[in-house]
Amino acid sequence: MKIFEEKQGNQFLNQLKIRSKDIKFCVLGAGNGGMAMAGHLAIMGFRVNLYNRSQEKLRGVKWHGGIQITGEIKGFGEIALATTDIEKAISEVDILMVVVPAAAHAYIAEKCAPYVKDGQVIILNPGRTGGALEFRKIFIDKGVDKKIFLAEAQTFLYASRLTSSASAHIFRIKKEVPLATLPSYWIPGVLSVIHEAFPQFVPGDNVLKTSLDNIGAVFHPALTIFNTSWIEKTKGNFDFYHDGLSKSLSLLLEEIDRERVCVAAALGIKINSAREWLYQVYNSYGETLYEAIQRSSGYRGIKAPQQIDHRYVWEDVPYSLVPISSIGKMLGIKTPTIDAVIHISNILLKKNFWNEGRTVEKIGIAGLSVKEIMQLVTGS
After folding, report:
1. Which of 189, 211, 233 is the last residue before a domain boundary?
2. Distance separating alpha carbons of residues 159 and 172, to the nearest angstrom
3. Which residues are annotated as catalytic?
4. Would you say the pTM of this structure is higher than 0.90?
5. Predicted local distance difference test score (pLDDT) of residue 21
6. Cα gap 114→124, rounded to integer Å
7. Quick one: 232 and 119 in the same domain?
8. 151/299 same-domain check
9. Alpha carbon distance 195, 84 (integer Å)
10. Angle between the N-to-C axes of helices 336-349 and 322-331, in degrees from 0 to 180, rounded to the nearest 10
């Protein structure tokens, strides 16, 4: 993967901006998030292709010719092409919106590598921790010689769920979602292009900040595994955040959060604590994390997973906690609480998330100094 020179890159982005109303999208992934985003984009009037690796999830969309959206957004979005053929899906589009679990990012990168074109914008929604860096390394390993604008969102824009094979419900759209490019000097240009569709995207500092501001690393894995008995007994029939979090368990989450903040600080990055994030996103405040979560109306009514074999563990542990721990080890920052949660998750799910997850080797920063890492992500 190559990097545009400033003049040429700006020319590509300016051309996209001029015809922003006619930009063509491909949404990669037909799950809860991908269907919502594809349908919404089509309702807004954009030409949208939808890619999924399995045919089964596309049959309803093909039959109906599009996606019915309910909730905060209402309407029918006509999908130009729904396909399992990655070459057809991305060959004539300007922006690729990757909306799959982080475990599938490597697969998508490998599938896209032979067919990407100069000037295409690829956005991971979201990147979790290290997503854009992993994508970049795979493109380099695959010998991709195209000049791509690669970006990641700090979190997913929607709270959404599939309601059928051709419909999705959007509960809410976040007011602001930080977005960063790799390297970071393309952030203004990419935002100017994507804002025609999604003005909710705001500038992130760089992909390390969007990656380490991943609040799911704090809220999801520990809260799930330490509610194992209750989840298995009730099949998740309780309010996950309000009932599942006790004052004692919140202390564990606060320690995970502290270790995450320390790893970021070792890179010279100031990230939001979980309490600060809750205040910014949901206007929820409290002297403790427990108090802030209990006051958050945004979490009220969200049920627990029906089983612990859930993305809150199998995604957030290897693609959020493991990279934080791996970066910490490389920089000499201890993360004993995060490591303990990874270890317990391995036992409960009979996995080895250390091997499966993103390490500094897999995201292409092993052995680099802090200065070299920052030069990589900023382009300076």
Report:
1. 211
2. 5
3. 220, 316
4. yes
5. 85
6. 18
7. no
8. no
9. 28
10. 140
Which residues constitute the domain of residue 264? 216-366
Edge-first strand listing for the sheet containing 149-153? 81-83, 47-51, 24-28, 95-98, 121-124, 149-153, 177-182, 201-203
Same domain, 78 and 207: yes
Q: Give the pLDDT of residue 349.
A: 98
Q: Does residue 378 lie in a domain region?
A: no
Residues of the chain with pLDDT under 70: none
Beta pairing class for 47-51 and 158-164: unpaired
- Rounded to 5°, the CA angle 120-168-306 comes to 110
In 10 A of CB 332, how many CB atoms? 7
Find, among 287, 359, 370, the residue nearest to 326 by Cα: 359
225 near 345, Cβ under 8 Å?
Answer: yes
Number of folded domains that form the chain = 2
Distance CA 69, CA 379 (A): 40
- From the CA atom positions of the chain, what is the Rg in Å? 20
Do residues 146 and 265 share a domain? Answer: no
Residue type, 355: N
**Residues 100 and 156 sit within 8 Å (Cβ to Cβ):** no
For the chain, give the number of residues. Answer: 380
72-77 long-range Cβ contacts below 8 angstroms, 24+ apart: 72/170, 72/171, 72/172, 72/173, 73/39, 73/40, 73/43, 73/170, 73/173, 75/39, 75/43, 76/39, 76/43, 77/38, 77/39, 77/40, 77/41, 77/42, 77/43, 77/48
Report the C-alpha gap between 161 and 179 in whole angstroms.
23
Quote the CA–CA distance of 371 and 334 in Å, as a whole number. Answer: 20
Task: Please give the mean pLDDT across all residues of the chain.
Answer: 95
